[in-house]
Amino acid sequence: MKIIQLGMVGGGRSSQIGDSHRVAANRDGLFKLSAGAFDKDPLASVEFGKKLGIDSSRAYADYRAMLQQELTRDDGIDAVSIMTPNGFHFEMASAFAANGIHVICEKPVTTTVEDAIKLAELVKDKDIVFGVMYGYTGYPMIKQAREMVRNGELGEIHTIKSEFAHGHAMHTVEQEKEGAAWRVDPKISGPSFVLADVGTHAYHIAGFVSGLKPIQVCAHLTSVVRTRPLEDNAFIWLKYPNGANGTVWASAVATGNQHGLNLRIYGSKASLQWHQERPNQLIYKQTSMSTKIYERGADDLYPAARIERVGVGHPEGYFESFSNVYRQFGQAIQAKLANQSLPVDYPGIDDGIQGVKFIESCLTSQVSGQAWVNL
Amino acid sequence: MKIIQLGMVGGGRSSQIGDSHRVAANRDGLFKLSAGAFDKDPLASVEFGKKLGIDSSRAYADYRAMLQQELTRDDGIDAVSIMTPNGFHFEMASAFAANGIHVICEKPVTTTVEDAIKLAELVKDKDIVFGVMYGYTGYPMIKQAREMVRNGELGEIHTIKSEFAHGHAMHTVEQEKEGAAWRVDPKISGPSFVLADVGTHAYHIAGFVSGLKPIQVCAHLTSVVRTRPLEDNAFIWLKYPNGANGTVWASAVATGNQHGLNLRIYGSKASLQWHQERPNQLIYKQTSMSTKIYERGADDLYPAARIERVGVGHPEGYFESFSNVYRQFGQAIQAKLANQSLPVDYPGIDDGIQGVKFIESCLTSQVSGQAWVNL
Amino acid sequence: MKIIQLGMVGGGRSSQIGDSHRVAANRDGLFKLSAGAFDKDPLASVEFGKKLGIDSSRAYADYRAMLQQELTRDDGIDAVSIMTPNGFHFEMASAFAANGIHVICEKPVTTTVEDAIKLAELVKDKDIVFGVMYGYTGYPMIKQAREMVRNGELGEIHTIKSEFAHGHAMHTVEQEKEGAAWRVDPKISGPSFVLADVGTHAYHIAGFVSGLKPIQVCAHLTSVVRTRPLEDNAFIWLKYPNGANGTVWASAVATGNQHGLNLRIYGSKASLQWHQERPNQLIYKQTSMSTKIYERGADDLYPAARIERVGVGHPEGYFESFSNVYRQFGQAIQAKLANQSLPVDYPGIDDGIQGVKFIESCLTSQVSGQAWVNL
Amino acid sequence: MKIIQLGMVGGGRSSQIGDSHRVAANRDGLFKLSAGAFDKDPLASVEFGKKLGIDSSRAYADYRAMLQQELTRDDGIDAVSIMTPNGFHFEMASAFAANGIHVICEKPVTTTVEDAIKLAELVKDKDIVFGVMYGYTGYPMIKQAREMVRNGELGEIHTIKSEFAHGHAMHTVEQEKEGAAWRVDPKISGPSFVLADVGTHAYHIAGFVSGLKPIQVCAHLTSVVRTRPLEDNAFIWLKYPNGANGTVWASAVATGNQHGLNLRIYGSKASLQWHQERPNQLIYKQTSMSTKIYERGADDLYPAARIERVGVGHPEGYFESFSNVYRQFGQAIQAKLANQSLPVDYPGIDDGIQGVKFIESCLTSQVSGQAWVNL
């Protein structure tokens, strides 16, 4: 299989998400990072690329230059990873997609549903692989959870509680930390802060594991830090077609919470719990019975969850989850490059649309005074 | 101090809550259980009383008989504990109160706010001690949490998340288990199942610790077991006067959850977490800092939390919490009997009214299609 | 069944163990505390008895006086609980036993094996019930563990690791706290501090659950607080007849440890772990498989473990464990008083002898420079 | 800085440790894996190298061939990682060292102390960097623990308890799993199984954190799986020069234990606990005080522990620890290649010697019937 030549837009300097993408792309030998528009400042982009071993001629200050130049090269990039502020995703992703470059894009894929749908049409037209970086679905125990649901071990699901509530924006980090300001600036971030930043993960993982898609949302959004033009705390209710109900709590002001992505799913027979901060364990509970703790790498997991990279008890973490998702992207892109039809399971443009619909519907519910809004 | 002569209404046969009250009343030598209407069946009441060492002449089949007879005795009861189904609380509590008998009543204190207010007036008129059995507030770490809030260790509170979500009614226990049916029968239980049964605890403990009283609620109630005429799952949003927000999740269908009372409070400086299933610990977290686990009995607790009954590391549990609340009731009653004015801190009729208001407002919000309702 | 009239020796003033015995004796209506030699100071004994509702004529300053007087009464004590410093156990227990009074004695039952054997002969001669207060064996999950071993769920046991390592004597508490000094004074405590105080619990619980009795010990004892004439830290190795091996760690200087009683048992098929500080859970693990957490009160426990006093999820603790042991003592005594032969399962004089043998053999091993000593 | 050209000996096919080394070497751009003797079978070595992108001319069947060939190349390897069975370490490491190739060697560095000392002399002579893969010391919280000890936060250390007790060899894996047999074959593994395999890690990490070196050991070794010629379970006592005492438990038969590396250190002021299976947390406890849980990435850690690769709450794991150790090796080698003297802190040949001394002394103690043996 061809090693995928990868470009990056954003992710330079001290970007944590940039490093996460690179570690993930680098893990399984599927990708080679060959080009990047890491920084708006041309010198900074070159300097950053140099540290990564990228030829200075392929370290760009602008994604357009990168696209143009790389298209002219025989060894030009096959795919691009986009990790800029949200407001740029649509324009950039569209440009690459239009030119047949496969795209891996940070969430939320766009800032409006309209754009997301346009992008989806382009993706279909151009027949490219389009991955959305819902990176937490790469955890093996999340796969295990999905398999357990699919195999009926929970019975009929009736209640889904999902949280992504951290506390790192309890203070006005936007005034203190370069790189944090854009998230609360509607011109760059789009119309949402915390839903777009973390709520969309909580929403996605709930659907990923449960296999259920909600039909209505009701949202109660606030800005705990009152100077913020965008919401930093969101309480959401969800209605599902089978009568199930759910909640999402997204917060950037859950003081002292370190990460805060948690999922609890309750069915007629049993429930599951998973906490991103202890990702190697999955808790299974039945009424009045002893608890079962599934452990990553254990022999009694479903095959789909046996994607561990090291034996049981040697903890895996965040980077392995991201790497697992990138591996799926890579396999999908390699298959496409080879004109093969590989049934690869990765978060794609449909997940992207769903994620933006969720955000947009919540915003609509909020301005309507907590009305139920169709998804 | 006089040992309080105590009567009981309800709590016979296999009642778990009956045993809990008796163990609590018996723990500190403040009460002597001397009479009881333990069962509607006269023989069963006598037999049950016998097991408890109660004279058969004082084991009644009816609370009215008990009230009448005990009033005629020199050594008649000073106080009564009421642990019947909710629908009887108002009538019974009123009858004892009207005759100057101090009352300890299970929650919810009545099934309507109107009744609760009437009862409060009677309590005031008759100048009796009226305790409402919010038994989980007796945990030392709940006292510690309240002190920490009072002393500003959390800063200004902005988010309160409280849950009491168990799974023991995921099956139709009302059809299987004698003693479970009444809870979902509106004629006996009143207009609410899960809010009245456990939601009121979650609501009370949030207020107890935070010191905040919400001004509006918005409720989304469902019956996961669809044959139930009353709600078995409740998602609630709360608005507080200072702009803070809260949620309550009450459920009897959280499959596999064993108890499920949890409290998380977030302030501008730090947050607290407490889980009833690990009651000896209280978790304190500040942004990006190491976590502190306060331990019951430790030297760095506030004096108000130093009510442990055994040294740190020897786990206390549910019975100690209930005993601590009864000790407060007992001290209040002893003080009253001695015409002393002791500043005793116990959940009283005002907490009772608040609890019923919460339930009633949630029901109103639900029938109005998730409208915000003033508390 | 007759309510057992109980006397106490020791346990007055601020004694924690005294309170523990009283709470336990009082829990199930089997005992009535009627007399006590709570304190060497006659006034203190009377005053303390008064608080407990004991007639001043039955609050003694001396156990001999109590024995003499109570024997003359029609309603004299049937049984006595002894919770004095270790050095007095033999003399006191013998005196009551010799007069046909049933005895519940704190561990270690004597300070020498010779005395323990003499006492056992007396117990047999007088046909009395003799309980030794290994109070931690009353935990339901300890019963569950024993049943699992008995039913072969662990396979053949090969390794047993038991710890009782707390840190409350890291400082020279003997100089700071009245009531702590005797434990490190050989004249009152006997030849051992930490083995007699807590090590004997760790040893007993290992045998209780595993059903195995070691044949040899090898001991490495030290005084971390160097001014102490007795050991405050003990590392012990044990050899079992089937080739199994074990360790005991007993410590009073495990700085920061709050309680520290833990048990881990490994067999050919699976292992169990139990931690006294989380007593409602029992951890079961098989090679490369998911973990099972047995929960007190759950439906999948063995009947012998279904002795919970409140439903699953409502935490029980230390006092329930002690109460469960007292209930067994009480049932054994009641059966004896009624000349019945009830197969009651309680820690008795044989456990007492074993416990003293363990201590004595460890001391012998230590003075022989870590020789293996037969038990 | 020059990118280090790295060769590997061993680690092919399904080797878990091989993958761990490669991931670690690859993480920070310091190394480039350019050559390898991955397998004794020449074709297998080439095929395995191919998967890794290594030129077939540089995939060798024998370490000697690799050494010889690579020395002739301008772009030949600067360093070699050795991850063969223990019995080959000395010969291989010596060969590379003798030719000025820097060496990273799996533990134990040799099978005899004599060899280890010879090797150390060679390392000194040739002035090469020699790293021993005590990979668990790369965890940030282990650095934090060491800093806390160094800064006196524990006071004087008196007790060290270290365990590496897993259960994956409870069954006769040597008969079932290719690649497992050598560990219990004295001809290939050397004179020890479990001490050499995992015990040496437990020993090393105790010294790394505490800064203390024991002076005597006493060992009780057994083969729980009786057909094994080498020990699979080891109980060790350690004496330290300051009067402190320690224990090591190493086991491959701790049924159900998944990994089992744990460290507890007790000082006069406080204690620390760390569990490899929850590596992002470090537990700090003082007598009768609340517990502090230090969290990887938190702001209140020592600078030496601020080597996190992603923010607090995003769990890091095993691979990050190994990567951190490789980074130290890489920096040391780069400095050496550049003739710089960089104060790099990595487990080196002295740690290697200590580790072998520990094993050898334990074996001596065992054959002497649990005698105390000088280290």
Short overview:
Four copies of one chain form a homotetramer. In chain A, 35% of the residues lie in helices and 22% in strands.
Could you walk me through the main structural features you see in this protein, from its secondary elements to its overall organization?
Four copies of one chain form a homotetramer. Chain A has about 375 residues and is of the alpha/beta class. The first copy, chain A, is built from eleven helices and 14 strands. In chain A, helix 1 packs across helix 10 (about 320-335), helix 6 (about 140-150) crosses helix 9 (about 195-210) and helix 9 (about 195-210) crosses helix 11. Chain A is globular, with a radius of gyration of 20 Å. The two termini of chain A are about 40 Å apart. The model of chain A has no long low-confidence stretch (mean pLDDT about 95). The interface of A and B includes residues 224, 245 and 268 of A.
